[in-house]
Amino acid sequence: MIGCAGFIGVGLGGSAWAQRADDNATAAAEDAYGTRIGSDNVGLYSPNSARGFNPMQAGNVRLEGLYFDQQAFLGRAIAKSTTMRVGLSAQSYPFPAPTGIADTAISTPAEKIHFSFSEELRRPTGLNLNYAEASGPLTDTLSGLLAVSTYQAWSPGRARGSRWTVASTARWKPSDKVEVAPFVFYQRGEDDEVQPSIYTAGAFLPPKYDRGVFYGQEWADRASDDLNYGLLVRGTPWANWRLQAGIFGSDAERASDYVVYFRNVQPNGVGNLEIQKYPWHDSKSLSGEVRASGVYASGSFRHTIHIATRARDTRRVFGGGNTLAFGPATIGVYKPVAEPRFNYGIADKDVVQQITPGVSYAGQWANVGEFSVGLQKGFYHRSYGKVGSTPATTRSQPWLYNATMAYYATRTLALYGSYTRGLEEFGTAPETAANGGAPLPAGLTRQIDAGVRYTIMPGFTAVVGVFEVKKPYFDRDTANFYTVVGDLSHKGVEFSLTGKPFTGLTVVAGAVFLKARVSGLTVDQGIIGKVAPGTSPRFVSINLQYSAPTWKGFTLEAQADSNGSTMANRANTLRVPAVTTYTLGARYPFVVMGVNVSMRAQVVNVTNVFGWTVDGSAGRFTPNGARQFGLRIAADY
Q1: CATH H-level, domain 25-636: superfamily
Q2: Residue 94 and which of 64, 127, 299, 606 are 20 to 30 A apart at CA?
Q3: What is the DSSP code string of 155-213?
Q4: pTM beyond 0.85
């Protein structure tokens, strides 16, 4: 059954992950829409990209099913896994959201004393990632987990970066009816040197260059502090009812931050080097949710009621940067310049306070179908302005609602459909706009989707769905002011094929075909084209693992990812060519003196293909990664 009970556990990740010996995202994936465990990442979507949008930016992150307004990086020690919930897999949520949900499961301390170590190496671009974890019971009712990691990276061009993290979580069960789980995660980043941002002078792509070369400035580096902490409480205070509550803090502080630009880049790679430095800035949030869920069963019927309130208080200090020009320079060529003195401007302050109470009902009829409805009332308040000045304020109090249904036509065939209305923020204006860095107003979004799930054979399932997501469209107007200029519609078809078609072979294969279209005054006036830039019209991801029964766990892996040709500018006169990359690897588990060990080797981007991606809002070009050789060893005991 699809499941609308709502007693759900969930996970989210970040850029640097540790690995335990038995982690395997391909083997764990329930569908092809996105699963991440450790450094494994398979499927179509991620917390930063789903159906052409950004779920994290939209506020669609959950910790153990509860609302979390994430501002800071949250790493592997706390976030055990990430599963993207869209389409059919999102129907089990009492309050779904357009563009899907990043479903976050928190690491739970082990029931017995447990130690885990891992080391990951990548070459030729250097990476050393070391991770150590200790976990187990402390008393009869209390268990804990402590993890530390170090991360060092460099490239042939002397770009460097180093981070270290410390994290801890605990689980206290004073009785069979109550569980309390606090956690804390801290990461310190030092000397993270910045790779440049590329902007061309016209409707042409930048020239290719050696992606292993660092061509920024050694003194233009970032220093960061990321802190996440929280407390989860679960209990069953009454018969048939469960209470869940979570309060979460997330603080991303940047003591030093730079942006290195290559503007007006010509076909020969020569552009104008500009560097922007920001003063101290910070983005912090206190958020959470309280939810009571009641379940009543009668014969073949099951009824679930959710009563919940979500809230957040988000405060950002940003802006005030100073940009200096350093003359002509060539992308991919290291040209050191002396560090100048930057004169900062006045910083901006942005405060968002939001409370959203809601109620949801889900009904299930065993072996026949299920449906759910939900209603929320948003109370949204935002103030924005220069530090020390009187801020401008905006308010919104929309009704938000959703409905889902599923029908089990046969034991192997299920049909589903849903409608969701949400309130989302849309990040900040790009630095190339006249109001660069300014927060964008919140707006109403909606999503409708439908599809079928078919069980081809036990353990091998296909899902086909269609969807449409509509949101306000932001772009630069005739005065270069980044604002709402129309509507953006993403219509698409997505496919998922997962499971084991025969002994030894595991398949996680998916595809999404997307039609992104803009409508509004700027399109009508011919200022911009009707195709949204930066959104791929096609993405196909195929992951295969094969292990014969006689191989004693030795597994061969193959992955192919293919992006379609993407519109590269607002005028729709330039495209980024399609690109397909391949990854090959193998993993082997074995035991040494009673210790479970896993070794994994990979070659990423086997053919070393060069491809570009483009930021649709800013027009910034970024190359894909060059070929890399990786080796990871993890041990548990």
Answers
A1: TonB-dependent receptor, beta-barrel domain (2.40.170.20)
A2: 299
A3: -TT--EEEEEEEEEEEEEEEETTEEEEEEEEEEEEEEEEPPPEEEESSSSPPPP--TT-
A4: yes
